[in-house]
Amino acid sequence: MSLIQETGMKATTNVPSSTSMPIDASGDPVNLERFDGGSLAVQEITMSFGPLKVLHGVSFEVAQGEVVCIIGPSGSGKSTALRCMNRLEQPTGGDILLDGESTLTMSADLLRQRVGMVFQQFNLFPHRTVLDNMTLPLRRVKKLSKEVAREWALAGLAQVGLSDKATYRPVQLSGGQQQRVAIARALAMRPEAMLFDEATSALDPELVKGVLSLMADLAQRGMTMAVVTHEMGFARRAAHRVVFMDQGQVVEDGPPDQIFDDPQSPRLKAFLAEVL
C-alpha cells in the first residue's frame, strides 16, 4: 500500500501489533485481507426538507466488489443520497436495497453494522486512545469480548499502516492519520459495503494522497464502495463506474472513460470544464 509518511508524537506505551489472524466471537478465524462485499441498489429515491425537494428519483447500483464514485457540483444532492444509503437521512420515496433486501425496513443499528460510513470529519472520541476508539463499537455493537475486540482493532490498524499509533490520542495524530483511524474503525466492523462522503475534503493537500491510496487498496481487496468525491483523478483510476449528479438527479452514469473522455450531457461537459 502506497501511503505517504506522516509524523506524530511518540506514544508512551508500546502495544504490539497482532501477529496471528484475529478470531470472531465464536473463535473462528477472520480474514481481513479480503472482503466479502454486498451489493447496493438505489431505486428512485426522493428526499425533501419541508417544501424543498432535494432528490428527484435518484437511481444507481453498486455491484458486489464494485467501486462507484459520485461526482457533481456542490448542492447537487450527492451527499444526501449517500446519507440515505446509511439511513442518516430518511428518503421520502423509493427504496434502497442491500443484497436485494430493503434497508428501509431494517433497524438502523443492523444497517450500520452492514454498511459502514466515513465522513469528512473524523468523529473520533478525543479523550480516548486510538485503540479505545477502535474497540468501543466492536464491544458495544458486535458484542465481542475485550480480548477479541483488541485483536480485531490491532489487525485493523495494521491494515491502514498505523500499528504503532494504538496508544495515541487523536490530538497526537495528523489529519490524514485520524482519517485512516476512522476508516479502520469502520472496516473493523466487517461491513458488506462502505460509504465515503468526501473523505479527503477536510485534509491538507499533502495528506490527501495517503487516504486515497488506502481507499484504492480497499478497492483492490474487493470492498463494495460508494464514494462521494471531488478527487477526479481518484474517480478515474479507482472507480468501476462514475455517477454524475446535478440538481438532485442522476444526469449520467457510466465507466470512467465514458464520463471523463466522452461526456454526453451539456451539464457534465460544463462541470468537467470547470474541475479538470
UniProtKB/TrEMBL annotation:
Q: Where is the composition biased (Polar residues)?
A: 10-21
Tell me yes or no: is ATP-binding among this UniProt entry's keywords: yes
EC numbers listed for it are: 7.4.2.1
Q: Which GO terms describe its cellular component?
A: plasma membrane
Catalytic activity, as annotated? a polar amino acid(out) + ATP + H2O = a polar amino acid(in) + ADP + phosphate + H(+)
Q: How does this chain sit within the bilayer?
A: Peripheral membrane protein
Gene Ontology molecular-function annotations: ATP binding; ATP hydrolysis activity; ATPase-coupled polar amino acid-transporter activity
SMART domains documented for this protein: AAA (SM00382)
Cellular compartments annotated = Cell membrane
The alphabetized UniProt keywords are: Amino-acid transport, ATP-binding, Cell membrane, Membrane, Nucleotide-binding, Transport
In this protein, which residues make up the domain named ABC transporter?
40-272
Q: Which family does it belong to?
A: Belongs to the ABC transporter superfamily.
What this protein is called in its record is ABC-type polar-amino-acid transporter
Organism equals Nakamurella panacisegetis
